[in-house]
Amino acid sequence: MGVDVGGTFTDAVLVENGRPVGVAKVPSTPDDPSRAIAAAIDQIRTGQDARTLLVHSTTVATNAILARTGARCGVITTRGFRDVVEMGRRDRPHIYGFAGAHRPIVARRDRIEVGERLAYDGTVVEALDLDEVRDAGRQLLSAGVAAVAVCFLHSDVNPCHERQAIAALREFWPEPRYVTGSADLYAEAGEFVRFATAAANGYLQPVVSAYLGRLVGRLSDLGHAGPVLVMQSSGGVASIEQTRDLAIGVARSGPVAGVVAAAEIGRRAGLSNIVTCDIGGTSADVSVVVDGRPRYVNDASLGFRLPLVMSTLDVVAVGAGGGSIARVDELGVLTVGPDSAGADPGPACYGQGGTAPTVTDAALLLGHIDPDARFGTGRQSRLDPDLAAAAVRSVAEPLGIPVPVAARGILAVATTTMANAIRSVLTARGHDPREFTLVSFGGGGGLHACALLRETGMRAALVPRHPGLVSALGCAVADLRYESSRSWPAAAADLDDVATAAALHRMLDEQEAALRERLSEQPGIAVDDVEIVVEGDLRYRGQSHHLRVPLDRPIDRAGVEKRYRQAYERRYGRTLADAVVEIVTLRSTLVAHHGDADLSGPVAGAGRGPRADGGAGGVRHRGDLAPGERLVGPLLLVADDATVHLEAGYVAEVDAEFNLLIREGA
């Protein structure tokens, strides 16, 4: 069973023998997401599934970081480095001026220095004072700190002092797993990102652990005794216990499940270059897949000057979803988002007490949503255009324009925000939009597909058979995925030395052994095959930024230089033939396939809507469509999980997988 927890709705899909056989869509419960998960599971459980494998995504960690509602965390660090987590890096996220306010997640009073020092090469300059460590730990405990991160300088090269400190603290810390060492999370150079990641993990651990405890309790009440896995930011899944230890690993869990499923849908449709666009109730999440491979980054952001230095799928999120609220700002400009009406009260047209104008209200007023469709509400009642009109009037009147014009403006602003996100993953990174297909999904994916094609210059959009269920299906098909990385600063030419090359391969062997040990800790999960992927963070000498490049074993100088020069030319359109190629970091990733799901065809339980009127400008149900059929806009294509608005001037073809392939044409 795959369960996707969104800001507005929680979706669940039950898969048996590779086929989706049941679906549920319920309002999310932001105060405790486990309640919505339990409600969704209760709707589709068969009575035979007490041992069903449950995989779910969560926004608990993301919300805790953004809203600063994590646990009180302390930091014990090398004397003189108390303020590293606050100083940040010398970068500017916006070209013009400064934007954002840095709010450290660990207060200065909870950062304590102790005596110890390692040199850059890991040799001990000053021995660790364990008495100081214990005193610091007891001081933090007495102050009410729940978790502590041990962050020593150069521990990425030699973690001996961190491990001694961790052992001493765990002797008396109430929950030993809440003592974290920075090198155990991120064994790479750069003290700021390493310290910040360790602090963020400690900040999130008690919150994530408490949430997972509530979830396990609710599942137990439902009689579910099967294993539970959690979607990771890397696009893989991990167990409850592993997630409790590495809470930072789910900091971007929410958006990645959809990317995993969309990449698979694109592959089955014969598309290797795609842009995924998941339009939900709260946000639009955009990612890029090139040559069938989703793009990974090692240094994403969780907020202003708060890096996430864990391997994660590269997803750009913007506050433009179905529930995004429109308003006229103090300058008289129409804006949309980033705040959302969410699940409660939801858009005004849902009739649940909402009065703020949202993107969904605007779409309903303009006829992009059938009022009789049960799109996204999980309710049988009709959507109310009068309530939507009253809400949109609150922005129309200040602008002095009719309500329909205001509704078109709301959709135009939302579309532009989404299109800017798409441009950020394409043109800003050297890709031609005309060479990519938009895979648009989520509850609002089909509503905006035509407009996004027009806005971005992309030539085709694919809307999956069940766009509103894609992220839940992504949870069901995600692989087990573990990664280990280590700094390895060297020039590619150093690999000509036999001893250096042998040491590198020994380190990779150690990484692989540790990853396989982690896999063995997964209880009750049968895997079909295991793959070890080796990659390097490479750069030209003198550069500060690197590219993540796949490498083939055995690793040698020629292979490293060839792979990097090819990657550099693809990214920047040129190469530096005489520049020295350097290795910054080597990383090994274990990918274990544990199941499969057919993402094509109808999902049992995704029933037929109340209307099925054909003809131009009419309404058709997607369940009536057959492969090979050609549709001409304007037309609404309705289903229980989402609506597709095929605009005038666009055509859609139903492919063999029941996807809609939309292009401009007559």
From TrEMBL:
Pfam families for the chain? Hydant_A_N (PF05378), Hydantoinase_A (PF01968)
The Hydantoinase A/oxoprolinase domain covers: 194-483
Locate the compositionally biased regions of type Gly residues. 604-618
- Coiled-coil boundaries: none
Domain Hydantoinase/oxoprolinase N-terminal, first and last residues per copy: 1-171
Span list, region Disordered: 601-620
PANTHER family according to UniProt? 5-OXOPROLINASE RELATED, HYPOTHETICAL 5-OXOPROLINASE (EUROFUNG)-RELATED
Q: What is the name of the protein in this document?
A: Hydantoinase/oxoprolinase family protein
Task: State the organism named in the record.
Answer: Phytohabitans maris
